[in-house]
Task: structure prediction
Amino acid sequence: SGSGTAASYSIGSINPSALPRFECQFRPNLTDTNQDNRPSAFDNSEICSGPRPQQPPIALTPRCAHCLAAVANVDEVRQLSSLPETETELRAMAQYLGADDDAIFLRERATESQVKSVILNQSKVVAFSTHGLVSGELRGLAEPALVLTPPDKGTEYDDGLLTASEVTQLQLDADWVILSACNTAAGDKPGATGLSGLAKAFFYAGARALLVSHWPVESNAATALTTNMFQMLKQNPMIGRAEALRQSMMTLASNPHTAHPFFWAPFVVVGEGGN
Result:
């Protein structure tokens, strides 16, 4: 809804006991009402976010007259396009890592409240497969955010948007955080230095490496990229996550349907990529 390796172990280990506990978060439940006109190499696929001229910006209601924070209009958050293929992506990651279904949070379980209540510092790999929003993309949104399943009524604690400042309050001890979403390497505001938004927030929260994107990603291509990456690690645990990503990128680049860099080049490993 969004979504691993480690500094001290091999992801592709055949021995399940050597695999880290995998907290696979989160695939939100959103109504599929927002179609993007951008060409795609996949039938019925969508761009997971990015400019959508036909859709008015989501209105955010200020919490108070003296603060910048806001509670999102959950009805409009719910209108963001559904990303059904993210479930396949997360389940593939979980299979490679030896995680069970209890570690996968989909649809109604993929909420902001759930993220904040789960004990994340026992998970070495944390993955989000969802929409990523940059500052200013929605009216009133002052910082980057990940979209999760919104509640019936938005509150300060849960309005369906996990913002960068809220990410910094999480307690992680993760060797790898996978942000399979759009623009997750973007700055915290327009014109800001890259990696100063969600990426910086996750490092602050306790991540040692991240998989982040530099621009809007094609959803099916992102799924193929991450699942192939884990397959590379499973086949050769010694290559490290950065090399596994490179090999997965080259696999997509060699396919005429996904040869354009738009499909295979948005993601980058930041942090401890050689392990």
Q: What stands out?
A: The longest strand covers residues 22-28. Residues 1-24, 32-68 have pLDDT under 50 and may be disordered.
